[in-house]
C-alpha cells in the first residue's frame, strides 16, 4: 500500500531513496513520506514509520489513527526500532555531493563524518566579512586572494596580518614600536604615581601640622586647669584660716 501526503513529503523525516546505491527494499520505506526510515518506530498496530513522520501525522490528524489501517494510535505506545535502525545504517549510499563530483560511496551511518571532510562539501569562507560559498577543496586557493583573509604573524609577534599588510610587515620594527609604546605608557603611569605621592605627602604634612596644633592647644588647656586648681586651693585655705580666727575670738 502506497500512501504519500504532499505536505509530509515536503517535510520528509526519511532518507531520500535516490541517495542509496541500490534501491532499498520496499519494507524499509515509510508509507507517509515515501523515504527510507529515519529513526523507525512501530505503532501498536505493527505498522512502522519514521518517528518524525508519524508524530507530525498524529498532530495533524484529529482522530489520532494509523495512516495505513486507521486503527487508533497512542503516542505512548510507539516504540523505537533500534535493530532496524542499525540495519538501515549499514546500507550503502552515494555522497550527497556526488552532483559536485564526489565519487565516494559509504555506509549511511558514516554520512555525517564523511561530510565533515568531503572535499566537495559546499562551505562558507571562514574569514569574517567574506560571503563566498566554495567547495572545501578550493578553500586554500580562495584564501590566497580573499580580501578578508587574516592570520597572526607566523614569527609569533602577535600582529594580525592581511594580504595587504603581510608584504610590508617587519617583526623587528613592529616589536620596537610596541616596546616604545609600552615605555611611554609606563612613564606616564610612573609620572601619575609620583604626582599622587606628592599630593599624599602634602596632605600628610598638613595633617601633622594640624595634629601638632591640637597637641599644643591641649597642653595649654592642661596648664590652665592646673593654675585654676592651684588658685582654687589657695582661696579655700585662706577661707578656712579666716573661719578659725573668728571662732577663737568668740
UniProtKB/TrEMBL annotation:
Residues passing through the membrane, by range = none
Residue intervals of the TRAF-type domain:
114-157
Annotated SUPFAM superfamilies: RING/U-box, TRAF domain-like
**Keyword Zinc in record:** yes
- What InterPro entries would the database entry show? Znf_C3HC4_RING-type, Znf_RING, Znf_RING/FYVE/PHD, Znf_RING_CS, Znf_TRAF
Q: Where is the composition biased (Low complexity)?
A: 234-250
Q: Where is this region: Disordered?
A: 225-250
Zinc finger, TRAF-type: residue spans? 114-157
Q: Which UniProt keywords apply?
A: Metal-binding, Zinc, Zinc-finger
Which Gene3D superfamilies does the UniProt entry name for this protein? Zinc/RING finger domain, C3HC4 (zinc finger) (3.30.40.10)
PANTHER family, A to Z: TNF RECEPTOR ASSOCIATED FACTOR, TNF RECEPTOR-ASSOCIATED FACTOR 4
| Protein's name in the database | Ribosomal protein S2
Species in which this protein is naturally found: Hucho hucho
Amino acid at each position: 500500500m502506497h500512501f504519500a501526503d504532499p505536505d509530509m513529503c515536503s517535510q520528509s523525516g526519511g532518507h531520500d531513496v535516490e541517495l542509496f546505491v541500490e534501491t532499498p527494499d520496499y519494507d524499509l520505506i515509510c508509507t507517509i513520506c515515501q523515504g527510507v526510515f529515519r529513526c523507525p518506530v512501530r505503532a501498536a498496530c505493527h505498522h512502522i514509520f519514521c518517528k518524525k513522520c508519524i508524530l507530525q501525522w498524529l498532530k495533524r490528524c484529529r482522530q489520532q489513527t494509523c495512516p495505513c489501517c486507521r486503527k487508533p494510535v497512542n503516542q505512548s505506545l510507539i516504540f523505537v526500532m533500534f535493530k532496524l535502525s542499525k540495519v538501515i545504517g549499514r546500507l550503502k549510499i552515494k555522497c550527497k555531493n556526488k552532483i559536485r563530483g564526489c565519487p565516494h560511496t559509504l555506509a549511511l551511518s558514516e554520512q555525517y563524518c564523511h561530510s565533515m571532510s568531503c572535499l566537495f562539501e559546499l562551505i562558507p569562507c571562514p574569514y569574517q566579512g567574506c560571503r563566498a560559498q566554495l567547495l572545501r577543496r578550493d578553500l586554500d586557493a580562495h584564501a590566497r586572494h580573499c580580501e578578508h583573509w587574516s592570520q597572526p604573524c607566523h614569527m609569533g609577534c602577535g600582529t594580525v596580518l592581511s594580504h595587504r599588510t603581510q608584504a610590508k610587515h617587519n617583526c623587528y620594527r613592529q616589536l620596537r614600536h610596541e616596546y616604545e609604546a609600552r615605555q611611554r605608557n609606563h612613564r606616564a603611569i610612573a609620572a601619575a604615581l609620583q604626582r599622587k605621592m606628592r599630593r599624599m605627602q602634602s596632605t600628610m604634612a598638613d595633617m601633622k601640622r594640624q595634629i601638632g596644633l591640637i597637641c599644643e592647644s591641649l597642653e595649654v588647656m592642661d596648664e590652665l586647669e592646673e593654675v585654676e586648681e592651684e588658685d582654687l586651693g589657695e582661696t579655700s585655705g585662706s577661707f578656712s584660716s579666716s573661719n578659725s580666727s573668728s571662732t577663737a575670738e568668740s
